[in-house]
Specification:
By secondary structure, the chain is an all-alpha fold. Among the domains are: 29 residues, no CATH class; 56 residues, no CATH class. 50% of the residues lie in helices and 0% in strands. It contains seven helices and no strands. Helix 2 runs antiparallel to helix 3 and helix 5 crosses helix 6. The radius of gyration is 27 Å and the shape is extended. It starts with a helix and ends with a helix.
Length: 177
């Protein structure tokens, strides 16, 4: 079969390059002797100590032996992540919430930088210089859409004094946490 593939459509550059059994480091195939089933009887690694909050899938009985601890969930993005982990891994609600949490976390990072007195160079960090240089038309479109969306959100938030005060209080609570 492999030779038939290798002899196939030779006018396609690279066709069948991996089909030659004499040039394949895994050929001939390993003969199964049943030892593959023994691999589940290995000595498992020691459990990493849990000293920060670890979000865990509802479909798994325990946490993995090793996990990252550099950025435990915090702030609004952490609350969104905790909410997302209440859903199944197969649920789009989980993944959309996690994407939203990533976006919120990016904004939280900018706010945190500003609190510390560091003004981030968002233009450079987002790669907008290269975008402007190589993709001006779409960059202008993105900026225009972002400006319209921002204007709409600000107009929505500022429509009415009572609601404005409620939104301002909510924003202050989020920034303080």
């Amino acid at each position: 079969m492999d030779r038939k593939i290798a002899e196939g459509d030779k006018n396609i550059n690279g066709w069948g390059v991996d089909a030659n059994p004499e040039n394949d480091p895994t050929y001939p195939m390993k003969h199964a002797d049943g030892s593959d089933h023994q691999r589940i009887n290995y000595e498992k690694a020691e459990q990493q100590p849990v000293n920060v909050e670890i979000l865990q899938s509802i479909e798994r009985p325990g946490i993995t032996r090793v996990f990252g601890t550099s950025t435990p969930p915090s702030g609004v993005s952490g609350q969104l992540r905790r909410f997302a982990y209440k859903f199944s891994e197969a649920s789009s609600a989980r993944w959309m919430t996690l994407i939203l949490a990533d976006r919120v976390n990016a904004v939280e990072g900018i706010v945190d930088d500003l609190k510390r007195g560091y003004v981030p160079n968002i233009f450079a960090e987002r790669g907008w210089g290269a975008e402007w240089k190589y993709n001006k038309k779409e960059f202008i479109q993105k900026v225009a859409v972002a400006g319209l969306v921002t204007t709409a959100v600000v107009a929505f938030l500022l429509r009415g004094k009572k609601k404005n005060h409620t939104v301002a209080k909510s924003i202050r609570k989020i920034v303080k946490s």
